[in-house]
Protein backbone atom coordinates (compact mmCIF):
# COMPACT_ATOMS: atom_id res chain seq x y z
CA UNK A 1 0.00 0.00 0.00
CA UNK A 2 1.13 3.54 -0.57
CA UNK A 3 2.47 5.27 2.52
CA UNK A 4 -0.52 7.61 2.80
CA UNK A 5 -3.23 5.02 2.14
CA UNK A 6 -5.88 5.28 4.88
CA UNK A 7 -6.15 2.55 7.51
CA UNK A 8 -8.41 2.21 10.53
CA UNK A 9 -7.27 0.07 13.45
CA UNK A 10 -9.18 -1.31 16.41
CA UNK A 11 -6.89 -1.97 19.34
CA UNK A 12 -8.46 -4.41 21.82
CA UNK A 13 -7.33 -4.24 25.44
CA UNK A 14 -6.96 -7.16 27.81
CA UNK A 15 -9.69 -8.00 30.28
CA UNK A 16 -8.83 -8.85 33.87
CA UNK A 17 -9.64 -12.39 35.04
CA UNK A 18 -11.10 -13.56 31.68
CA UNK A 19 -11.36 -17.21 32.77
CA UNK A 20 -13.31 -16.20 35.83
CA UNK A 21 -15.62 -14.06 33.69
CA UNK A 22 -16.28 -17.05 31.43
CA UNK A 23 -17.30 -19.00 34.54
CA UNK A 24 -19.61 -16.18 35.60
CA UNK A 25 -21.17 -16.19 32.14
CA UNK A 26 -21.78 -19.93 32.48
CA UNK A 27 -23.44 -19.38 35.87
CA UNK A 28 -25.68 -16.66 34.44
CA UNK A 29 -26.86 -18.75 31.50
CA UNK A 30 -27.62 -21.70 33.80
CA UNK A 31 -29.39 -19.31 36.22
CA UNK A 32 -27.02 -20.19 39.05
CA UNK A 33 -26.48 -16.47 39.68
CA UNK A 34 -27.89 -13.10 38.69
CA UNK A 35 -26.34 -11.14 35.80
CA UNK A 36 -23.52 -8.74 36.58
CA UNK A 37 -24.19 -5.04 36.84
CA UNK A 38 -22.08 -2.55 34.88
CA UNK A 39 -20.38 -1.66 38.16
CA UNK A 40 -19.57 -5.32 38.87
CA UNK A 41 -18.11 -5.76 35.41
CA UNK A 42 -16.03 -2.57 35.50
CA UNK A 43 -14.68 -3.16 39.01
CA UNK A 44 -13.49 -6.71 38.50
CA UNK A 45 -13.02 -7.41 34.79
CA UNK A 46 -12.76 -4.39 32.50
CA UNK A 47 -9.61 -2.38 31.78
CA UNK A 48 -9.63 1.04 33.37
CA UNK A 49 -9.77 4.36 31.58
CA UNK A 50 -6.14 5.14 32.39
CA UNK A 51 -5.02 2.05 30.46
CA UNK A 52 -7.23 3.00 27.51
CA UNK A 53 -5.69 6.48 27.55
CA UNK A 54 -2.19 4.97 27.43
CA UNK A 55 -3.18 3.33 24.15
CA UNK A 56 -4.89 6.54 22.98
CA UNK A 57 -1.75 8.56 23.61
CA UNK A 58 0.47 6.02 21.87
CA UNK A 59 -1.68 6.05 18.76
CA UNK A 60 -1.83 9.84 18.75
CA UNK A 61 1.94 10.08 19.09
CA UNK A 62 2.35 7.83 16.05
CA UNK A 63 0.19 9.95 13.77
CA UNK A 64 -3.28 8.45 14.29
CA UNK A 65 -6.33 10.69 14.65
CA UNK A 66 -10.13 10.45 15.04
CA UNK A 67 -9.54 8.24 18.09
CA UNK A 68 -12.53 6.68 19.92
CA UNK A 69 -12.49 4.81 23.23
CA UNK A 70 -15.41 2.44 23.87
CA UNK A 71 -17.43 2.99 27.04
CA UNK A 72 -16.06 -0.19 28.57
CA UNK A 73 -12.44 0.80 27.69
CA UNK A 74 -12.01 -2.44 25.75
CA UNK A 75 -11.54 -1.02 22.25
CA UNK A 76 -9.60 2.00 21.05
CA UNK A 77 -10.37 2.88 17.43
CA UNK A 78 -8.14 5.20 15.39
CA UNK A 79 -7.62 6.33 11.79
CA UNK A 80 -4.18 6.65 10.26
CA UNK A 81 -2.14 5.65 7.23
CA UNK A 82 -0.08 2.66 6.19
CA UNK A 83 3.07 4.45 7.30
CA UNK A 84 1.50 5.15 10.71
CA UNK A 85 0.75 1.45 11.10
CA UNK A 86 4.32 0.55 10.23
CA UNK A 87 5.65 3.08 12.74
CA UNK A 88 3.36 1.95 15.56
CA UNK A 89 3.20 -1.81 15.00
CA UNK A 90 6.19 -2.65 12.75
CA UNK A 91 4.24 -4.25 9.93
CA UNK A 92 3.95 -3.51 6.22
CA UNK A 93 0.53 -3.51 4.57
CA UNK A 94 -0.44 -4.79 1.13
CA UNK A 95 -3.59 -4.23 -0.90
CA UNK A 96 -5.09 -7.47 -2.22
CA UNK A 97 -7.64 -8.17 -4.95
CA UNK A 98 -9.18 -11.44 -6.12
CA UNK A 99 -12.27 -11.25 -8.29
CA UNK A 100 -14.79 -9.08 -6.44
CA UNK A 101 -12.97 -9.52 -3.14
CA UNK A 102 -10.63 -6.75 -2.04
CA UNK A 103 -8.94 -5.71 1.16
CA UNK A 104 -5.62 -5.39 2.94
CA UNK A 105 -3.23 -7.76 4.66
CA UNK A 106 -0.21 -7.26 6.88
CA UNK A 107 3.02 -8.78 5.63
CA UNK A 108 4.69 -8.95 9.04
CA UNK A 109 3.49 -10.05 12.46
CA UNK A 110 2.07 -7.19 14.50
CA UNK A 111 4.56 -5.99 17.09
CA UNK A 112 2.97 -4.61 20.23
CA UNK A 113 5.29 -2.15 22.00
CA UNK A 114 6.73 -3.49 25.23
CA UNK A 115 5.43 -0.45 27.09
CA UNK A 116 1.87 -1.57 26.30
CA UNK A 117 2.25 -5.37 26.35
CA UNK A 118 0.47 -5.51 29.70
CA UNK A 119 -2.54 -3.71 28.23
CA UNK A 120 -3.02 -4.59 24.53
CA UNK A 121 -4.49 -7.96 23.60
CA UNK A 122 -4.68 -7.54 19.81
CA UNK A 123 -4.56 -5.04 16.96
CA UNK A 124 -7.26 -5.51 14.32
CA UNK A 125 -8.06 -3.93 10.98
CA UNK A 126 -4.95 -5.15 9.19
CA UNK A 127 -6.45 -8.31 7.62
CA UNK A 128 -9.66 -7.05 6.05
CA UNK A 129 -9.16 -9.20 2.93
CA UNK A 130 -9.70 -12.32 5.03
CA UNK A 131 -11.71 -10.99 7.96
CA UNK A 132 -14.57 -9.13 6.32
CA UNK A 133 -18.18 -9.83 7.11
CA UNK A 134 -20.87 -9.74 4.46
CA UNK A 135 -24.61 -9.24 4.61
CA UNK A 136 -26.77 -12.34 4.81
CA UNK A 137 -29.61 -10.69 2.85
CA UNK A 138 -30.72 -12.40 -0.37
CA UNK A 139 -33.17 -10.88 -2.85
CA UNK A 140 -35.88 -13.08 -4.34
CA UNK A 141 -35.16 -14.11 -7.93
CA UNK A 142 -38.31 -12.57 -9.39
CA UNK A 143 -36.92 -12.28 -12.90
CA UNK A 144 -36.66 -16.06 -13.15
CA UNK A 145 -40.23 -16.55 -11.97
CA UNK A 146 -39.14 -18.42 -8.85
CA UNK A 147 -41.32 -16.42 -6.48
CA UNK A 148 -45.00 -17.11 -5.92
CA UNK A 149 -46.55 -13.75 -5.15
CA UNK A 150 -49.14 -13.43 -2.47
CA UNK A 151 -51.14 -10.82 -4.37
CA UNK A 152 -50.94 -9.07 -7.71
CA UNK A 153 -51.38 -5.53 -6.40
CA UNK A 154 -49.72 -3.88 -3.46
CA UNK A 155 -47.86 -6.41 -1.31
CA UNK A 156 -49.89 -8.25 1.25
CA UNK A 157 -53.36 -7.24 0.07
CA UNK A 158 -54.78 -10.68 -0.73
CA UNK A 159 -57.26 -12.14 1.76
CA UNK A 160 -56.18 -15.00 3.99
CA UNK A 161 -59.63 -16.58 3.77
CA UNK A 162 -60.30 -19.53 1.48
CA UNK A 163 -57.81 -21.41 -0.68
CA UNK A 164 -54.46 -19.61 -0.96
CA UNK A 165 -52.46 -19.15 -4.12
CA UNK A 166 -49.34 -20.77 -2.73
CA UNK A 167 -47.90 -22.52 0.29
CA UNK A 168 -44.26 -21.52 -0.15
CA UNK A 169 -45.25 -17.87 -0.34
CA UNK A 170 -43.76 -14.43 -0.10
CA UNK A 171 -45.32 -13.03 3.04
CA UNK A 172 -46.57 -9.69 4.22
CA UNK A 173 -45.19 -8.72 7.66
CA UNK A 174 -48.66 -9.11 9.16
CA UNK A 175 -48.38 -12.88 8.49
CA UNK A 176 -45.22 -13.74 10.42
CA UNK A 177 -46.39 -13.14 14.02
CA UNK A 178 -49.26 -15.56 13.43
CA UNK A 179 -47.15 -18.13 11.61
CA UNK A 180 -44.66 -18.24 14.51
CA UNK A 181 -47.13 -17.90 17.38
CA UNK A 182 -45.99 -14.43 18.45
CA UNK A 183 -49.52 -13.02 18.24
CA UNK A 184 -50.30 -15.12 21.31
CA UNK A 185 -48.10 -12.69 23.27
CA UNK A 186 -48.52 -9.01 24.05
CA UNK A 187 -46.58 -6.48 21.93
CA UNK A 188 -43.06 -5.76 23.20
CA UNK A 189 -43.89 -2.12 23.93
CA UNK A 190 -41.37 -1.67 26.76
CA UNK A 191 -38.44 -3.36 25.02
CA UNK A 192 -35.53 -2.01 22.95
CA UNK A 193 -33.94 -4.15 20.23
CA UNK A 194 -30.49 -3.27 18.89
CA UNK A 195 -29.71 -3.90 15.23
CA UNK A 196 -26.14 -3.86 13.92
CA UNK A 197 -25.71 -2.00 10.63
CA UNK A 198 -22.91 -0.67 8.46
CA UNK A 199 -22.28 2.67 6.81
CA UNK A 200 -24.51 5.68 6.15
CA UNK A 201 -28.02 5.10 7.52
CA UNK A 202 -29.45 8.55 6.78
CA UNK A 203 -32.24 7.09 4.61
CA UNK A 204 -33.20 4.13 6.80
CA UNK A 205 -35.83 6.02 8.79
CA UNK A 206 -37.56 7.11 5.59
CA UNK A 207 -37.55 3.58 4.14
CA UNK A 208 -38.89 2.17 7.40
CA UNK A 209 -41.64 4.79 7.69
CA UNK A 210 -42.73 4.15 4.08
CA UNK A 211 -42.94 0.42 4.76
CA UNK A 212 -44.69 0.75 8.15
CA UNK A 213 -47.29 3.23 6.92
CA UNK A 214 -48.28 0.88 4.08
CA UNK A 215 -49.21 -1.84 6.55
CA UNK A 216 -50.72 0.49 9.12
CA UNK A 217 -48.03 -0.29 11.70
CA UNK A 218 -47.48 2.15 14.54
CA UNK A 219 -44.10 3.73 13.91
CA UNK A 220 -41.38 2.56 16.32
CA UNK A 221 -38.80 5.27 17.09
CA UNK A 222 -35.55 4.45 15.27
CA UNK A 223 -32.35 5.79 16.81
CA UNK A 224 -29.21 5.60 14.63
CA UNK A 225 -25.87 5.53 16.48
CA UNK A 226 -22.40 5.68 14.89
CA UNK A 227 -20.03 4.56 17.70
CA UNK A 228 -16.81 5.04 15.70
CA UNK A 229 -17.96 7.23 12.81
CA UNK A 230 -18.98 6.49 9.23
CA UNK A 231 -18.44 7.64 5.64
CA UNK A 232 -21.31 9.84 4.36
CA UNK A 233 -22.70 8.39 1.15
CA UNK A 234 -21.62 4.82 1.97
CA UNK A 235 -24.92 3.06 1.31
CA UNK A 236 -23.44 -0.41 0.80
CA UNK A 237 -25.53 -1.91 3.59
CA UNK A 238 -28.68 0.23 3.29
CA UNK A 239 -30.89 -2.69 2.20
CA UNK A 240 -29.58 -4.89 5.01
CA UNK A 241 -30.54 -2.23 7.55
CA UNK A 242 -34.02 -1.85 6.04
CA UNK A 243 -34.53 -5.62 6.12
CA UNK A 244 -33.34 -5.92 9.73
CA UNK A 245 -35.43 -3.03 11.02
CA UNK A 246 -38.54 -4.20 9.15
CA UNK A 247 -38.14 -7.80 10.34
CA UNK A 248 -37.71 -6.75 13.98
CA UNK A 249 -40.79 -4.52 13.74
CA UNK A 250 -42.70 -7.34 12.06
CA UNK A 251 -42.37 -9.70 15.02
CA UNK A 252 -42.54 -7.37 18.02
CA UNK A 253 -45.95 -5.80 17.53
CA UNK A 254 -44.40 -2.59 18.89
CA UNK A 255 -41.26 -1.50 20.73
CA UNK A 256 -40.05 1.34 22.87
CA UNK A 257 -37.25 1.80 20.34
CA UNK A 258 -35.10 0.18 17.68
CA UNK A 259 -31.46 1.18 18.21
CA UNK A 260 -29.43 0.89 15.00
CA UNK A 261 -25.69 0.79 15.72
CA UNK A 262 -23.83 1.35 12.45
CA UNK A 263 -20.19 0.36 12.01
CA UNK A 264 -17.90 2.18 9.56
CA UNK A 265 -17.33 -0.97 7.45
CA UNK A 266 -18.23 -4.65 7.22
CA UNK A 267 -14.79 -5.61 8.57
CA UNK A 268 -15.43 -7.91 11.50
CA UNK A 269 -13.36 -5.79 13.87
CA UNK A 270 -15.40 -2.71 12.93
CA UNK A 271 -18.61 -4.66 13.48
CA UNK A 272 -17.27 -5.65 16.90
CA UNK A 273 -17.12 -1.96 17.83
CA UNK A 274 -20.82 -1.60 17.00
CA UNK A 275 -21.77 -4.72 18.97
CA UNK A 276 -19.64 -3.48 21.87
CA UNK A 277 -21.49 -0.15 21.90
CA UNK A 278 -24.85 -1.95 22.04
CA UNK A 279 -23.60 -4.14 24.91
CA UNK A 280 -22.29 -1.09 26.75
CA UNK A 281 -25.71 0.53 26.40
CA UNK A 282 -27.29 -2.55 28.01
CA UNK A 283 -29.45 -3.54 25.04
CA UNK A 284 -30.94 -6.84 26.18
CA UNK A 285 -31.54 -8.06 22.61
CA UNK A 286 -29.07 -7.59 19.73
CA UNK A 287 -29.49 -8.75 16.12
CA UNK A 288 -26.38 -9.20 13.96
CA UNK A 289 -26.80 -10.01 10.25
CA UNK A 290 -23.20 -9.73 9.05
CA UNK A 291 -20.74 -12.61 9.17
CA UNK A 292 -17.69 -14.06 7.49
CA UNK A 293 -18.86 -17.14 5.65
CA UNK A 294 -16.03 -19.38 6.89
CA UNK A 295 -15.24 -19.23 10.59
CA UNK A 296 -12.30 -21.54 9.91
CA UNK A 297 -10.57 -18.69 8.06
CA UNK A 298 -10.74 -16.17 10.94
CA UNK A 299 -7.63 -15.53 13.01
CA UNK A 300 -7.67 -16.74 16.58
CA UNK A 301 -6.87 -13.29 17.94
CA UNK A 302 -10.04 -11.88 16.36
CA UNK A 303 -12.10 -14.81 17.64
CA UNK A 304 -10.73 -14.15 21.12
CA UNK A 305 -11.59 -10.45 20.92
CA UNK A 306 -15.18 -11.26 19.98
CA UNK A 307 -15.53 -13.95 22.65
CA UNK A 308 -14.08 -11.60 25.26
CA UNK A 309 -16.75 -8.99 24.54
CA UNK A 310 -19.55 -11.52 24.06
CA UNK A 311 -18.76 -13.29 27.34
CA UNK A 312 -19.25 -9.93 29.05
CA UNK A 313 -22.60 -9.64 27.28
CA UNK A 314 -23.69 -13.05 28.58
CA UNK A 315 -22.53 -12.16 32.09
CA UNK A 316 -24.74 -9.05 31.88
CA UNK A 317 -27.76 -11.06 30.70
CA UNK A 318 -27.63 -9.78 27.11
CA UNK A 319 -28.59 -12.05 24.19
CA UNK A 320 -26.99 -11.67 20.75
CA UNK A 321 -28.59 -13.36 17.72
CA UNK A 322 -25.96 -13.91 14.98
CA UNK A 323 -26.28 -15.46 11.52
CA UNK A 324 -24.49 -18.52 10.16
CA UNK A 325 -24.48 -17.10 6.56
CA UNK A 326 -25.95 -18.02 3.18
CA UNK A 327 -23.49 -20.15 1.20
CA UNK A 328 -24.77 -23.64 1.96
CA UNK A 329 -22.90 -26.57 3.41
CA UNK A 330 -19.70 -26.11 1.40
CA UNK A 331 -19.08 -22.36 1.15
CA UNK A 332 -15.59 -22.55 -0.39
CA UNK A 333 -13.46 -22.33 2.75
CA UNK A 334 -9.70 -22.62 2.58
CA UNK A 335 -9.80 -26.08 4.15
CA UNK A 336 -12.35 -27.14 1.50
CA UNK A 337 -14.64 -28.51 4.19
CA UNK A 338 -18.08 -27.62 5.45
CA UNK A 339 -18.08 -24.59 7.68
CA UNK A 340 -20.26 -22.08 9.43
CA UNK A 341 -20.22 -18.30 9.72
CA UNK A 342 -18.36 -16.17 12.23
CA UNK A 343 -19.26 -14.78 14.78
CA UNK A 344 -22.31 -17.06 14.55
CA UNK A 345 -20.00 -19.87 15.65
CA UNK A 346 -19.27 -18.26 19.02
CA UNK A 347 -20.66 -20.16 22.03
CA UNK A 348 -21.77 -16.79 23.43
CA UNK A 349 -24.42 -16.09 20.75
CA UNK A 350 -27.66 -17.66 19.63
CA UNK A 351 -26.63 -18.96 16.22
CA UNK A 352 -29.32 -18.53 13.55
CA UNK A 353 -29.76 -20.39 10.25
CA UNK A 354 -32.60 -20.22 7.74
CA UNK A 355 -35.58 -22.31 6.70
CA UNK A 356 -38.21 -22.44 3.98
CA UNK A 357 -41.62 -21.72 5.53
CA UNK A 358 -44.88 -23.27 4.36
CA UNK A 359 -48.36 -22.07 5.32
CA UNK A 360 -51.51 -24.19 5.17
CA UNK A 361 -53.68 -24.56 2.07
CA UNK A 362 -56.39 -22.30 3.51
CA UNK A 363 -54.48 -19.46 5.18
CA UNK A 364 -51.33 -17.47 4.67
CA UNK A 365 -51.14 -16.91 8.43
CA UNK A 366 -51.40 -20.54 9.61
CA UNK A 367 -48.20 -22.52 10.07
CA UNK A 368 -47.88 -25.89 8.32
CA UNK A 369 -44.22 -26.95 8.28
CA UNK A 370 -40.65 -25.89 7.48
CA UNK A 371 -37.72 -27.41 5.65
CA UNK A 372 -34.08 -26.34 5.62
CA UNK A 373 -33.27 -23.57 3.14
CA UNK A 374 -30.67 -25.03 0.80
CA UNK A 375 -28.28 -22.06 1.22
CA UNK A 376 -28.33 -22.00 5.02
CA UNK A 377 -24.85 -22.58 6.46
CA UNK A 378 -24.44 -24.96 9.34
CA UNK A 379 -21.95 -27.24 10.97
CA UNK A 380 -19.29 -27.37 13.67
CA UNK A 381 -17.18 -24.36 14.60
CA UNK A 382 -13.53 -24.56 13.59
CA UNK A 383 -11.93 -23.87 16.97
CA UNK A 384 -14.77 -23.42 19.47
CA UNK A 385 -15.26 -26.52 21.61
CA UNK A 386 -18.70 -27.85 22.44
CA UNK A 387 -20.25 -25.62 25.11
CA UNK A 388 -21.89 -27.21 28.14
CA UNK A 389 -25.40 -26.39 26.94
CA UNK A 390 -24.86 -28.74 23.96
CA UNK A 391 -23.78 -31.70 26.10
CA UNK A 392 -27.27 -33.16 25.88
CA UNK A 393 -26.84 -33.49 22.09
CA UNK A 394 -23.15 -34.47 22.18
CA UNK A 395 -23.88 -37.69 20.30
CA UNK A 396 -25.06 -35.55 17.37
CA UNK A 397 -22.69 -32.56 17.44
CA UNK A 398 -19.41 -34.17 18.49
CA UNK A 399 -16.69 -32.20 20.27
CA UNK A 400 -17.12 -28.79 18.62
CA UNK A 401 -19.72 -26.05 19.00
CA UNK A 402 -22.53 -26.91 16.57
CA UNK A 403 -24.46 -24.30 14.59
CA UNK A 404 -27.16 -23.17 14.19
CA UNK A 405 -29.12 -23.28 17.42
CA UNK A 406 -32.32 -22.28 15.60
CA UNK A 407 -33.67 -21.32 12.22
CA UNK A 408 -36.42 -18.99 11.10
CA UNK A 409 -37.72 -18.27 7.62
CA UNK A 410 -34.95 -17.12 5.29
CA UNK A 411 -35.73 -18.59 1.89
CA UNK A 412 -36.28 -15.56 -0.38
CA UNK A 413 -39.12 -17.49 -2.03
CA UNK A 414 -40.98 -17.37 1.29
CA UNK A 415 -39.43 -14.09 2.36
CA UNK A 416 -40.59 -10.64 3.42
CA UNK A 417 -41.75 -7.60 1.48
CA UNK A 418 -39.62 -4.55 2.33
CA UNK A 419 -38.98 -1.09 0.86
CA UNK A 420 -35.50 -0.44 -0.53
CA UNK A 421 -34.04 2.73 -2.00
CA UNK A 422 -31.18 4.32 -3.90
CA UNK A 423 -30.11 7.37 -5.87
CA UNK A 424 -30.61 7.39 -9.65
CA UNK A 425 -28.29 9.03 -12.18
CA UNK A 426 -29.92 12.43 -11.58
CA UNK A 427 -29.28 12.21 -7.84
CA UNK A 428 -32.95 11.65 -7.01
CA UNK A 429 -33.71 9.16 -4.25
CA UNK A 430 -36.02 6.39 -5.51
CA UNK A 431 -37.78 3.66 -3.54
CA UNK A 432 -39.20 0.32 -4.60
CA UNK A 433 -40.82 -2.75 -3.08
CA UNK A 434 -38.70 -5.90 -3.05
CA UNK A 435 -38.70 -9.34 -1.43
CA UNK A 436 -35.75 -10.41 0.70
CA UNK A 437 -34.74 -13.46 2.67
CA UNK A 438 -31.47 -15.03 3.80
CA UNK A 439 -30.21 -15.65 7.29
CA UNK A 440 -30.39 -11.85 7.54
CA UNK A 441 -34.16 -12.22 7.67
CA UNK A 442 -34.05 -15.11 10.14
CA UNK A 443 -31.93 -13.40 12.84
CA UNK A 444 -34.04 -10.22 13.25
CA UNK A 445 -37.24 -12.30 13.12
CA UNK A 446 -35.88 -14.30 16.04
CA UNK A 447 -34.62 -11.20 17.88
CA UNK A 448 -38.00 -9.49 17.51
CA UNK A 449 -39.75 -12.58 18.80
CA UNK A 450 -37.38 -12.73 21.76
CA UNK A 451 -38.28 -9.15 22.67
CA UNK A 452 -41.88 -10.28 22.85
CA UNK A 453 -40.87 -13.12 25.16
CA UNK A 454 -39.09 -10.65 27.43
CA UNK A 455 -42.22 -8.51 27.50
CA UNK A 456 -44.20 -11.57 28.63
CA UNK A 457 -42.07 -11.78 31.78
CA UNK A 458 -39.23 -14.06 30.73
CA UNK A 459 -36.08 -12.89 32.53
CA UNK A 460 -33.54 -11.12 30.26
CA UNK A 461 -30.82 -13.74 30.58
CA UNK A 462 -28.75 -15.61 28.03
CA UNK A 463 -31.17 -18.46 27.55
CA UNK A 464 -29.04 -21.03 25.79
CA UNK A 465 -29.18 -23.64 28.54
CA UNK A 466 -32.95 -23.37 28.86
CA UNK A 467 -33.32 -23.48 25.07
CA UNK A 468 -31.55 -26.82 25.02
CA UNK A 469 -33.33 -28.20 28.09
CA UNK A 470 -36.67 -27.36 26.47
CA UNK A 471 -35.62 -29.01 23.19
CA UNK A 472 -34.56 -32.22 24.91
CA UNK A 473 -37.84 -32.30 26.82
CA UNK A 474 -39.84 -31.81 23.65
CA UNK A 475 -38.00 -34.50 21.66
CA UNK A 476 -38.17 -36.99 24.54
CA UNK A 477 -41.72 -35.89 25.41
CA UNK A 478 -40.72 -35.47 29.04
CA UNK A 479 -41.73 -31.81 29.37
CA UNK A 480 -45.50 -31.68 29.19
CA UNK A 481 -45.60 -27.89 29.30
CA UNK A 482 -43.50 -27.51 26.14
CA UNK A 483 -44.20 -30.26 23.64
CA UNK A 484 -44.87 -27.71 20.89
CA UNK A 485 -42.32 -25.01 21.76
CA UNK A 486 -40.22 -25.67 18.66
CA UNK A 487 -41.14 -26.44 15.07
CA UNK A 488 -38.75 -29.30 14.33
CA UNK A 489 -38.02 -29.22 10.61
CA UNK A 490 -39.45 -31.92 8.36
CA UNK A 491 -36.62 -32.21 5.81
CA UNK A 492 -34.17 -30.42 3.56
CA UNK A 493 -30.41 -30.29 3.03
CA UNK A 494 -27.66 -27.73 2.42
CA UNK A 495 -25.34 -30.22 0.75
CA UNK A 496 -23.27 -31.01 3.81
CA UNK A 497 -26.01 -31.73 6.36
CA UNK A 498 -29.55 -33.04 6.00
CA UNK A 499 -32.46 -32.66 8.38
CA UNK A 500 -33.43 -35.72 10.38
CA UNK A 501 -37.07 -35.02 11.29
CA UNK A 502 -38.08 -34.96 14.92
CA UNK A 503 -34.75 -34.24 16.60
CA UNK A 504 -31.92 -31.75 17.00
CA UNK A 505 -29.91 -31.51 13.77
CA UNK A 506 -26.50 -30.32 12.64
CA UNK A 507 -28.43 -28.78 9.75
CA UNK A 508 -31.15 -26.86 11.60
CA UNK A 509 -30.61 -27.02 15.37
CA UNK A 510 -33.93 -27.15 17.17
CA UNK A 511 -35.85 -25.69 14.25
CA UNK A 512 -37.94 -22.54 14.68
CA UNK A 513 -39.98 -21.06 17.52
CA UNK A 514 -43.64 -21.34 18.42
CA UNK A 515 -43.46 -18.18 20.51
CA UNK A 516 -46.58 -18.47 22.65
CA UNK A 517 -45.79 -21.99 23.79
CA UNK A 518 -42.10 -21.14 24.23
CA UNK A 519 -42.87 -18.20 26.52
CA UNK A 520 -44.75 -20.55 28.84
CA UNK A 521 -42.02 -23.16 28.68
CA UNK A 522 -39.25 -20.68 29.40
CA UNK A 523 -41.12 -19.19 32.35
CA UNK A 524 -41.55 -22.65 33.88
CA UNK A 525 -37.90 -23.49 33.21
CA UNK A 526 -36.80 -20.36 35.06
TrEMBL record:
UniProt keyword annotations, A-Z: Calcium, Hydrolase, Metal-binding, Protease, Serine protease, Zymogen
Domain Peptidase S53: 170-526
Coiled-coil positions: none
CDD domains: Pro-peptidase_S53
The keyword Oxidoreductase is annotated on this UniProt entry: no
Highest taxon above the source species: Bacteria
Essential cofactor(s): Ca(2+)
Entries under Gene3D superfamilies matching the protein: Peptidase S8/S53 domain
InterPro entries xref list: Peptidase_S8/S53_dom (IPR000209), Peptidase_S8/S53_dom_sf (IPR036852), S53_propep (IPR015366), Sedolisin_dom (IPR030400), Tripeptidyl-peptidase_I (IPR050819)
Pfam families listed in its UniProt record: Peptidase_S8, Pro-kuma_activ
Positions of the catalytic residues: 240 (charge relay system), 244 (charge relay system), 440 (charge relay system)
Stated name of the protein: Sedolisin
Amino acid sequence: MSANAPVRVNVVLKMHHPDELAQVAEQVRTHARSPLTDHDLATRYLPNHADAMRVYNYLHANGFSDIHVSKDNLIVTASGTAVDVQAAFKTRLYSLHRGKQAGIANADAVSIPSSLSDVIAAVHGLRSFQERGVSGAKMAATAQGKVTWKGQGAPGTQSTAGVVACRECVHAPTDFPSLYGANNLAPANNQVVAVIGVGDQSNTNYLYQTWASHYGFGFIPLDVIYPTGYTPGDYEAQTEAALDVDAVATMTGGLQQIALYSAPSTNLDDELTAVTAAINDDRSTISLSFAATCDSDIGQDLRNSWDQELSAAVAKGITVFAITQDDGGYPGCSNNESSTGFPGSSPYVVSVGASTLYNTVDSYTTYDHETLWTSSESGPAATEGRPNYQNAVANIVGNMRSTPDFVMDGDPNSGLWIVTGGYDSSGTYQTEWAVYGGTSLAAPLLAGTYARLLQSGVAPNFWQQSFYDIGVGQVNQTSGDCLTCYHLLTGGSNGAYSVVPGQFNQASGWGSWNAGALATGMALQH
